[in-house]
Amino acid sequence: MVSEVIAARLAGLPGATREVVATAAIIGQDLSHELLASLTGLTHDDLVRALRSAVDHHVLVAYGDRYRFRHALVREVAEQQLLPAERTELHRRAAEVLTDQPQLGTAGAEQIVAEVARHWHEAGEVERAFASSFDAAEQAQRTAAYGAALAHYERVLALWDAADPGDRDHIEVLRAAAGCAEDAGELHRGAQHLRKALEVGGADGGELEADLRRQLAGVLSAIDREGALEEAERARDLVGDLGPSAIRARALAVYAQELILDPARAPDAAIAPAREAVAAARAAGEREVEADVLIGLARALGWIGEFDESLAALDQARVVADELGDDLRQVRVARARFVVLFVCARREDEAQSVAAELASWLQSDGHRWLREARHVAEWLGYAYLRAGDLERVEEALDSMAEGGLEGIYLALYYHVRGTMYWMRGRLSEASADVQRMRELAAARFQHDQYPLEAQIAAEQGRLADVRELAAQYLAAQVDSSVEAMKTGVLLPLVRSEVDHALASRGGVREEHERSAKQTLSRMRELVDRFPPPPGGAVQLETPSTWVLLAEAELSRLVGPDPDRWRASLDAVDGTYWRTYARLRLAEALLAGDERDAAAEELLAAHSQAQQMGADGLREDIEALARRARLHLPGVRAEAPGDLGLTSREREVLGLVALGCSNVEIGARLFISRKTASVHVSNLLTKTGRDSRADLAAWAVREGIVDLDVS
């Protein structure tokens, strides 16, 4: 085994070198000369000789004025060789030295605090580990390192019964851990800590329990809709007899927020408790809470389509934030305004204006509140995706990643990036991000994951995978208010069935056409049975738009229909889909011999694709222009006899015209049956000919192959 080889190499080191390596293993991967000197007690010359030996034996690597292990496994083996007593003593010495001389460490101040806490804990010094872990948690929280803060708080909680907590409040520490878990995207862990807080003494039937259940409802919202609503209802009941207060206002606001997506309630059920929350905050004189609950009221109003009233509530919230001089709440108001305009009202121009304001804040001041910056960057990413501004999507992704991403926030990052890759035509990278998202995402991301994964599979020609993804998504349990969002996975299924039908003949073609029509019927049924609330369109396009695009896709089979594609073009919001619709519109116009109109649409589509950097779409546009011999800037039209076919496809064309099967084509061209089938599919899609005789006659006329078709 590799570990045994490493152990043998370490055993052969000189004694002083083994001591230095053992000490280094306790410190970590990044080592300073000064810290090693302080911990080992070796003279300068002896330490240099020991380090030289470790480097020469490929155990350590020197870089700058530091050292690191050549491989993490080497460090692991070196640490495992220590006796328990040796390991404990080395950790104790490391903790003492770094406590007294933190400048000897190689990390920043917050990391040194964390390292000290780790060493005290490994040394078995319970009281010191408890206190230093608490300090490390607060330090990490101040720097928005929420995952690290959560780990430190959980160590504090693990030591709670063994240490003397002093005047620290157990419930408040549990709530702090839950807050860090929520910020880190570890929602299940956050819920566990809040439930523990209720066990410890928070279920008092009063304000404390109400506030804990309100916080628990917020954490559960993305992972357990029923549980979130249950906790929100219990919080509401607990504050029912209370006078105006911040706790009452917040509990009512969370209850209203959970009602928004409850399919059993009327869409406007959230409005009354949201208004009551505003009244409670005002009566209590809680101005900060008033601004927060006004934002909640605006969201509830936006969900039911009361956009003007929603924006008016946000105007009131902004006034409060301005009067308080509260920069953070001003940003939250702006973010909520963007969501109402972009997601609910779909007022693109106004939304982009707010996006510009948020982008400016993100660049100049976003570092002050990394949690809020993460949310802002996420929404900007979606805004740029819809606008087709893919370069700025990359800027938003960089902003999302600042400070680190974990849990559900990392899943969101992969969705934005995967969508960008798909639009750029980088399908393998897009597919990798969807897989990462699958491994991380909770149920709330089904509306993002499945449609994107199906679009990628459709463009790669993987019909079986598209069918499977559609089946999985359709079977998924979701709230009826978002059931219509499943149309997002059915559109690529219609497209894929149509593509395969065009490349097939006879009964196979009929089967694909029948499947495409059935899928379109299912899309219409979803939209008719589960119409989303007016403000409930949460994807880049709406369910009704997906249906229009699917109807246009089907028209490619039953006959060219430019009007279908014009209707789609008028309906879609996103630049990518507008570009795609223009390509298909041009294709339909060409089939009707409307070359001038087709040339105009292709020119517009080509310009949009180039601006986006959507290379896959651009290549499809250029291929159509070459086949139709239409001029595009920088694109050479094909001469007669070429028509955009590759040399291999022209070989396949001749064999198809001779009546060869896919197996025979594969044998003659020394390629696999699967590869032959792909060539034939591509060929028939490009030519659009319906019979072998017509195909062969056309080939002879074009001079591609010399065939006797008598």
The main β sheet shows up as: 3 strands, antiparallel
Spans where pLDDT lies below 50 across 5 or more residues: 669-680, 685-693, 697-710
How would you state the average pLDDT, rounded?
85
Side-by-side strand order of the widest sheet: 1-3-2
Helical proportion? Answer: over 70%
Number of helices: 36
* Total beta strand runs: 3
Protein structure class: mainly alpha
Beta-strand portion reads under 5%
In one word, what is the shape? globular
Q: What is the terminal separation in angstroms?
A: 72 Å
Whole-number tally of structural domains: 6
- Rg on CA atoms, Å: 32 Å
Task: Walk me through this protein's architecture.
- The structure is a single chain.
- This protein has about 700 residues and is an all-alpha fold.
- The protein has six domains: about 1-105, Arc Repressor Mutant, subunit A, CATH 1.10.10; about 170-240, Serine Threonine Protein Phosphatase 5, Tetratricopeptide repeat (Alpha Horseshoe); about 245-325, no CATH class; about 440-560; about 570-635; about 645-700, Arc Repressor Mutant, subunit A (Orthogonal Bundle).
- The protein is about 75% helix and about 0% strand.
- It has helices spanning about 1-10, 15-25, 35-40, 45-55, 70-80, 85-100, 110-120, 125-140, 145-160, 170-185, 185-200, 205-220, 225-240, 245-260, 270-285, 285-305, 305-325, 325-345, 350-365, 370-385, 390-400, 405-425, 425-440, 445-460, 465-475, 485-500, 505-530, 545-560, 560-570, 575-590, 595-610, 615-630, 645-655, 660-670, 675-685, 690-700; strands spanning about 30, 60-65, 65-70.
- The model is unreliable at about 670-680, about 685-695 and about 695-710 (pLDDT under 50).
